[in-house]
Amino acid sequence: MDEHSVVSLGKANVSAADVLAVARGGARVELSADALAEMAASRARIDALAAEPRPVYGVSTGFGALAVRHISPELRAQLQRSLVRSHAAGMGPQVEREVVRALMFLRLKTLASGRTGVRPLIARTMAALLNADITPVVREYGSLGCSGDLAPLSHCALVLMGEGEAYGPDGTVRPATELLAEAGITPVELHEKEGLALINGTDGMLGMLVMACADLARLYTTADITAAMSLEALLGTEKVLAPELHAIRPHPGQTASAANMLAVLAGSGLTGHHQDDAPRVQDAYSLRCAPQVAGAGRDTLAHARLVADRELAAAVDNPVVLPDGRVESNGNFHGAPVGYVLDFLAIAAADLGSIAERRTDRLLDKNRSHGLPPFLADDPGVDSGLMIAQYTQAALVSENKRLAVPASVDSIPSSAMQEDHVSMGWSAARKLRSAVQNLSRVLAVELTAAARALEIRRDSYTSRDTDPLAPATAAALAAVRAAGVGGVGPDRFLAPDLDAAAALVASGGLIEAVEAVTGPLS
């Protein structure tokens, strides 16, 4: 954990950078004085309603289809405990710790807004869990993305009560009661509405959206680099990247991708030379249309970030305490806005991987690679080169096509038809995480192939006085080799090479190496 990084929660909206700092960077969380005061004020309103004889949903009633029952004061603490225990019903594999930390931080952000009516003690205790690096065990299945991410958030609330299981700072799963005691954290006893406020939000799907946006931003820049490397290795022309061609179709993402590719190819001695020995009027679509496809994905990403920013500014709960003191029921917990863009990003990620795989296949096919050896093998026939690397890449691309099927078009009624339309936003987020990881590996295979092809071009270049590669692609090739990805030579155990390339892509090291030559890319 980075003990020097602190994120303060107050009236101001949190940013995507704040989410990443807490979820991935281990930043500490502090509650501002204005947030604590706002929570105390809204809690006073809940206490006043709790004392009234009339039923108020979430305060003095049951939940969902059971909201028709009025709960007497002596049963209300039990009501909140029962809510959390019964809703902590997740099943399946354990969710990644960074996802759970994001989920907890975003729920804490909403508590700190003062719109939920919880006591400041609840928010302080949740902040203490985050700062002690205690991470509840959350299961894969249990959220329908409506009425909030109920089961995942309930597993977190359970640990707040000193029950259930959690990861400790050492990464070991242990009973929550032991971990809280060691950290000096007193379990909370929930009062009216507090159990409901802890579980009624879109925090899980939003946290995964924020992290996916950050990862995809890196991958889209990586894809521009690998596309440029493939174009250069295939002796394609960079003329299709000219700014004036993209200005007449003014999609911002397309313009940015074309500019990136052009910057990476600046100074190349290989681009455009296909006209010398194998005339072709135009390059294949996977080369010529690379900015259009990657650019459309960039614009999709920009839209997703807009939705994420709006959701980060929201206070999602039901009922909610309005600034004028009214406590009103609402449907803001419905995950449709987030679910739609999660699915949209999965579609864009699948297509970016698809076009990258087509470029890889072209590099390996001697009939279309303009002089490169079959499968980039050292001794074709004896050696298979990167033949099966493309199989692996194709399997990942195919998997991403399946993951691109939207989750948000599905709905299964729940809670005795009271909750008769749900978003499935959590499911959309879970499959997007898989798609992003797959895309990173797809680009790593293209990077491996393009680097080997460029090395072959360099070795066969007639003039030894000048490096034919663009300075930026030469830097990329050097970074690939420094990362442990082997070059041209007899066949060897290939999986470690591909893993090393994937690690380089995931770390952002490839972008850093190229930007050292080009300056900042978009």
TrEMBL record:
GO terms for cellular component: cytoplasm. It comes from the Bacteria. Keywords: Cytoplasm, Histidine metabolism, Lyase. Its EC number is 4.3.1.3. There is a cross-link at residues 146-148 (5-imidazolinone (Ala-Gly)). Contains an active site 4-methylidene-imidazol-5-one (MIO), which is formed autocatalytically by cyclization and dehydration of residues Cys-Ser-Gly. Transmembrane segments: none annotated. It is an enzyme of class 4 (lyase). Pathway: Amino-acid degradation; L-histidine degradation into L-glutamate; N-formimidoyl-L-glutamate from L-histidine: step 1/3. It catalyses: L-histidine = trans-urocanate + NH4(+). Pfam families: Lyase_aromatic (PF00221). The keyword GTP-binding does not apply. It is found in: Cytoplasm. GO terms for molecular function: histidine ammonia-lyase activity; phenylalanine ammonia-lyase activity. The modification 2,3-didehydroalanine (Ser) is found at residue 147. InterPro entries: Aromatic_Lyase, Fumarase/histidase_N, HutH, L-Aspartase-like, Phe/His_NH3-lyase_AS. One of its GO terms (biological process) is L-histidine catabolic process to glutamate and formamide. PANTHER family: HISTIDINE AMMONIA-LYASE (PTHR10362). Belongs to the PAL/histidase family. This is Histidine ammonia-lyase.
